[in-house]
Amino acid sequence: MKLLNGYTFDKPRLRCILSEPDRPDSRLLLLAEKVQNEELTDIRSDVREKVLQSSVEVVTYDLTLEYSYWPAEHILKRLLPEGCEVPTSFESVGHIAHVNLRDELLPFKNIIGQVLVDKNPSIRTIVNKVGTIENKYRVFQMEVIAGESDLETEVKQYKARFRLNYGEVYWNSRLEQEHKRLVDTFRPGQVVVDMMAGIGPFAVPAAQKGCSVYANDLNPKSYHYLTVNIKLNKVDNIVKASCMDARDFMRLLCNPGHSCSPRNDLEGDQDNAENLVERWKLPEGGLHFHHAILNLPATAVEFLDVFNGCFNQERWRDVPLPFIHCYTFAKAAETDADIISRAEAALGGALSKGCQVHLVRDVAPNKRMFCLSFQLPEAIAFGQGVRTAEAPTDADERLNNGESGHQDKKQKIAGAC
Ligand SMILES: C[S@@+](CC[C@H](N)C(=O)[O-])C[C@H]1O[C@@H](n2cnc3c(N)ncnc32)[C@H](O)[C@@H]1O
Q: Which residues are listed for S-adenosyl-L-methionine binding in this entry (predicted)?
């Protein structure tokens, strides 16, 4: 081997020394494919001479490397027309791999899917994204292109497990870091309200760290998996779930007399509003809570109007108002101040100093996702005549460390959330 250094067979996961079944005392040393004849004319002459003078016998050996040997990228390169970009990366959700094939690759979608299933032992189903995610429940439109048509799966995020049907509910594994970041800001014993909770990636970890959680989603399928995940993670003693519109949910929590209609077309039981109030033991005058989350970035800002005048002043007299964490998309050219201005327009009043705008992730070249966190000002919470048609214009000053322009003097400044 030392002598033949540089000429021996060298391929990942394959040995170059083989035993011969009918010659137990001898071994085969495989040479590289570039050595193609028994005269060893492809080898440097001094090496060849030494080899031929030694006691080794040179023989021809056929080695077939089959489909099972080659990685997906190599196979797809050979199968797809020349010049096509080979799709080898995908996002996985449990046993499901999710690809986003370009139009030119659609005629080959099934064979691409099959190679990816064959070559990734943990993947059993391949789906391709179809169209954009514009529907109300933010569910991907997708098509199974290979493997089992089973979209029911389970994923893990930190200490929590989540069951979901990827074709029926929203799930994005890329938000794992953000779920953790926000939950890390909650303290055990605090009360957290998740207005668009999906299947529970904020609600379950918050409960696991000892928060008491009220979680809601309008999609009946999300509500179903939310309740499944609450039980799966054994936090059913501190998470309460419902299925209704986010505004109704917030109004019900703040004013248990509010008449609203939880959905009545669910698979399991869903209480009517009065039963919820009773079962959740909502106090007259409304629930005291520390945090509210609105993670529906496409339209969550529009929901902020619900906070205007929603709170009972008497009940919240000596209690700090909650922190609101509202997700939103913004164009690359938009500033933090633009985001704050939009929120203020929906809230109907100015925010106080101490707002935080956190960049969550780049979604597309001109689209980024942010989380705006702020403590609800009293003037807005108690609807003290602050609703204005126009957004305030000095939003820059509401950013952390800025000076407040329209600030209610009594407002406590938002410190660490
Ligand atoms: C972007 S997903 C976020 C889900 C979850 N918070 C997460 O981080 O994975 C938005 C969720 O809002 C729900 N939704 C849409 N419109 C709603 C509404 N009017 N009221 C309550 N939930 C709504 C959708 O069903 C979806 O589950």
A: 179, 217-218, 245-246, 295
The domain of 107 spans 83-150
Is 178's C-beta closer than 6 angstroms to any atom of ligand 1? no
Cβ burial of 76 (10 Å; 0-12, 13-18, 19+) is buried
DSSP string, 269-312: ----HHHHHHHTTPPTT----SEEEE--TTTGGGGGGGGTT-S-
Smallest CA separation from ligand 1 atom 17, residue: 218
Same domain flag for 230 and 350: yes
Q: What residues form the annotated binding site for S-adenosyl-L-methionine?
A: 179, 217-218, 245-246, 295
Amino acid of residue 143: E
Q: Which residue has the tokens 């696991």?
A: 208
Q: In terms of domains, do 378 and 326 share one?
A: yes
C-alpha 334 – ligand 1 centre gap (Å): 24
Please work out whether the CB of residue 217 comes within 6 Å of at least one atom of ligand 1: yes
Residue 252 sits at φ, ψ, to 5 deg, of -65, -40
Tell whether ligand 1 has an atom less than 6 A from the beta carbon of residue 198: yes
**Quick check: CB of 277 below 6 Å from ligand 1?**
no
CATH of the domain at 112: 3.30.300.110
Name the DSSP letter for residue 201: T
**4 Cβ inside 6 Å of ligand 1:** no
> Does residue 175 sit within a domain?
yes
Per-residue pLDDT 10s for the chain (417 aa) are 889 999 999 999 999 999 988 889 999 999 999 999 999 999 999 999 999 898 899 999 999 999 999 999 999 999 999 988 898 889 999 999 999 999 999 999 999 999 999 999 999 999 999 876 667 888 878 999 999 999 999 999 989 999 999 999 999 999 999 999 999 999 999 999 999 999 999 999 999 999 999 999 999 999 999 999 999 999 999 999 999 999 999 999 999 987 776 666 665 556 777 888 889 999 999 999 999 999 999 999 999 999 999 999 999 999 999 999 999 999 999 999 999 999 999 999 999 888 999 999 999 999 999 999 999 999 999 998 666 544 445 667 777 654 333 333 333 333 332
Q: Give the CATH number of the domain where residue 267 resides.
A: 3.40.50.150
Q: For residues 213 and 278, state if they share a domain.
A: yes
Counting the structural domains of the chain, the total is: 3
Residue of minimum CA distance from atom 27 in ligand 1: 198
DSSP state of 240: E
Residue 179 CA to ligand 1 centre (angstroms): 14
**Boundary-marking domain end, from 94, 122, 150:** 150
Instruction: Classify residue 411: in a domain, yes or no.
Output: no
Same domain, 297 and 339: yes
Note whether 134 and 209 are same-domain residues: no
Distance between Cα 203 and ligand 1 center (Å): 13
| CA-closest residue to ligand 1 atom 12 | 196
Same domain, 27 and 94: no
Give a yes or no: residue 173 inside a domain: yes
